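Pasting as-is:
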Amino acid sequence: MTPETAGGADLVETPIHPPHVETYDVVAGVNVDRSGIPGRLDAWRVTDFGLYFARPVIAHPTIRWVQSWILPGLGVRVSDFRRHPGAVRSEDHYVDVMATTVDGPVWRTVDQYLDILVRTGAHARVVDSDEFVAAVRAGLLDPAGAERALEASFTAYAGIVGHGHDVDAWLRGLGIELTWVPPPEAG
C-alpha cells in the first residue's frame, strides 16, 4: 500500500479555492455574495436564533431564487433553493457548514466547505469532504476552525438523520422554528 492509496482510497489532489465569504446588511437589505456582487434582499428578518433572508439568484444556470436561515449557534446555514422551470431538484434543503460573525447590522459568513444535502424523509448526505480536506491541507482552515466545522457537520447530520431525514423536525427539537415562504412565480 502506498500513501496515495492508504486505506484503499485514492488521495487525488483536489483544486481548492479560498473560503466563500458573504455579508448581509440587515439595515440596507443588501447581500454581498461570494463573488463580491451586491444584491438586494427580497426579505430578511433577525430572530433570537438567526437571520432569515430571501433573494433572487442572478445568472445561475439552474437556481433562480433562494431563501435561507443562518443559524450561528449551530454553525450552519439552511437553504431552500428554487430552480428554473424544468430543472430537477434533488434536495429539499441544502445545509452549509459555516462560521458566522455579527458586527452591528452586518452578518458575515465564511463557508467551511462541508455541506449536507437533504431530501426530507428520504436521505441526507455530507458532500464536499474532498474540498474540506484540501482546504485544511492548504492552510485555508486552521485546526480549531476545522474542528468546529467537523463538529457542526456531525451534529447537524446526526440531528437530521435522527429526526427522519427532516431538517425542520431536527430544529424544532432544539426549539428553533423556521418559517419558509412560497417562492415567487417563475417567469
